[in-house]
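FAQ: What does the model actually see?

It sees only this:
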Amino acid sequence: MHELRPGACHWQSPHPDWNEEQWWPELVSSYAVELGDDFLLFDPLAVPDELRERATAVVLTAPYHERDACRLGLPVHTPPADTWEDWVEKFGVDPEGVRGMESDDLAWLRAGEGQGHFH
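And it is asked to produce this:
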């Protein structure tokens, strides 16, 4: 972990789902930013103890960046998980193959197993 400037930190950790067939790099970034009385963790994975102790909330830049958010026990601010309609619109998926399906992203949060704020 290194401090980019006072109140802003960056660290990288190996993604637990990574393998050589993945298109993303093995090491993924997480950030912590102090904003007034809040200390926010962005896309947290393997949060250093000194940052975890100060954290007041989690911010996910994408719903599939949930990483360690569930285990931290903090309020989570996130975009909503994609719907089957989103898959059709964004990725051109055949609607007949996905109609009615739900993303696994943030399932724990949508089920009430944490305090979530969808933006």
